[in-house]
Design brief:
It contains three helices and no strands. By secondary structure, it is mostly helical. It has helices spanning 2-27, 42-70, 72-98. The radius of gyration is 33 Å and the shape is elongated. 2% of the residues are buried.
Length: 121
Amino acid sequence: MPLSRAGTWINDTLIPSVQGLVEIIFTGETDKPLFGLDPDSPLTGFLEGLRDAIVRVGDALLSATSWGIEHKGMLSTLAISVGTAATAFSASTRATRDDGGRSRSWQHPEMGDQPQGHGGP
């Protein structure tokens, strides 16, 4: 019966392999079989490396979060300063762009009212 062989494979190979995969990812243990592979196989090594990378990223995120909580006063002041500077820059850029070239910061004394540097007649 093929169905009984499938059930046997599920019970003898698939379930222990999934349990082994869970063990590698969550505890780092490589004692359980992983689809019949040797614990020293490259796939097992890859999964251990993946687990270590995930742990390092998690640790870095926790460290950054705790640093942010400890320095929230400084970060909020910095955010307000950057926001104010960005708003002022945006407003000044918009004002100089919207005036159609009418405002001049200076005029050459010999040229009178001639606009400088704008390609005017």
